[in-house]
Amino acid sequence: MLFRGIKEVNGWTAVEYSATWQYSYEFMLDAAQVIIDTDFRDKLQRVAISKVAGGKELEKLDEVKACSNLLRDCPDVKEENGILTISGISQIMECPIQLVLFNQTNIVRLFCPFKKYFDEHGEHVFDNYINSIEIKAYCRDAERRTKEALLNKE
Predict the structure, then answer these.
(1) Cβ–Cβ under 8 Å, residues 63 and 77
(2) CA distances from 17 to 69, 127, 150, 152 (A)
(3) In this structure, what are the phi and psi dihedrals at residue 20, rounded to the nearest 5 degrees?
(4) What sign does the CA torsion over 128, 129, 135, 138 have?
(5) Rounded-to-integer distance, Cα 45 and Cα 64, Å
(6) pTM for the complete prediction?
(7) DSSP state for residue 36 in the 8-state scheme
(8) Rounded Cα distance, 83 and 107, in Å
(9) Strand order in 95-102's β-sheet?
(10) How far, in Å, CA of 112 to CA of 8, rounded?
(11) How many CB atoms within 10 Å of residue 94?
(12) Are 124 and 3 within 8 A, CB to CB?
């Protein structure tokens, strides 16, 4: 992903990235699931969806937890939305983070409440993290689509 900038938003430090390609909601689900599975695990704190940017966010954490943290098993979350937000304690970065993905764009926003984290490590402190997530998400997306194609041929 490409680093696009950093700013303060309501006491959080917000970093904006551009994904390599414009992505779909299916990819958003894959990316969010990668983060949940590989980093947040039992430290998932928020899942929210919104039909459009600036629209009312609907909190879905309880429903996702009832589905064993599998986003595609949660009916409201797997239905296409405009915005998908997940938050949790990053075990990799050792701090709380929130990621917001915007459907049919290439924009990803990462929020961290600790400005000191950026002061100590620089504004690019999350670049490797977010790049790894993008790569894993594209791999998961390709694997899912390949399985679906093979199942549809049978």
Answers:
(1) yes
(2) 25, 9, 33, 35
(3) -60, -40
(4) negative
(5) 11
(6) 0.90
(7) I
(8) 11
(9) 2-9, 12-18, 107-112, 95-102, 83-90, 44-50, 58-59
(10) 10
(11) 8
(12) yes
Tokens of 132: 């790894």
pLDDT number for residue 150: 87
Place of tokens 């390609």: 21
Per-residue model confidence as pLDDT tens digits over 9-62: 988 999 999 998 889 999 999 999 999 999 999 999 999 999 988 889 999 999
- In the numeric block, the tokens 């915007």 are attached to 102
CA dist., res. 102 & res. 146, Å (int)? 24
Length of the chain: 154
Mapped onto helix, strand or coil, the DSSP state of residue 68 is coil
